[in-house]
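Database export, one record per block. Field names are fixed; values are copied verbatim from the stored entry.
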Amino acid sequence: MRTVNTRDLRDNLADCLDAVQAGERVLVSRRGIAVAEIVRVSSTVPSREVAEAVRTGVARRAGDSDRLRLLLDEPPRGEPANLVDRVLDDRSA
């Protein structure tokens, strides 16, 4: 596991993301205290928000791809226009 401070992360973001994409975990620290861990997204276990968007029909999985891709359709009238808006609305309620 690689450990970087916030400045190193900012200055070397592309390198850190390349390492994460290759399967390495990156621990981010601020003033010597670990504050975040960056890990590769699992294509087999979607986040709760993505799963909810798929369940409600706001998003759908790509047909023949093994990676999760959101293909946003036109949202129902009166609903937020995208997943981020839906999550923010849900958290403010």
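Remark 1: The first helix runs from residue 6 to 11.
Remark 2: The beta strands are 2-5, 26-30, 33-38.
End of record.
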